[in-house]
Phosphomevalonate kinase (Ceyx cyanopectus), 147 residues
Amino acid sequence: PTDPLSLQEHDLDFQRLLDASAYKESYRQDMIRWGEEKRRTDPGFFCRTAVEGASQPVWVVSDTRRLSDVEWFRDVYGDTVQTVRVVATEETRRRRNWVFVSGVDDAESECGLDQGVAFDWVITNNGDERSLDEQLEPLLQSLRGRL
């Protein structure tokens, strides 16, 4: 949740919710449920919260989860939006201690952008630093060109 009041109301440790710990996993389904409720009442809530009060020549918004998020940014910022998808093989993800949890990892919050979005950039991150750098350089050049 990006709503600090929600974290305070539930006495949650924000930093621990950002890692891949058992702490996060114990609250994960509740966070998803809370987020779904927020989106039902206000589809742009999280997007507006992320950009509220700030102005930047280039934004990097990580971790959008749904088509409605991408659509919000495109509606508000138009052609300046560049979408980037980072992918890794399941084998790589397992090496990073990812374990599939039914009802969580197959929910819209985790795979809502797996279909229906034409990404401007697709970056593969399977742990090869050289390959990652080679993929990121054209993206960074493109962003610098927009400044």
Summary: The first helix runs from residue 4 to 9. Residues 82 and 120 are 6 Å apart (CA to CA).
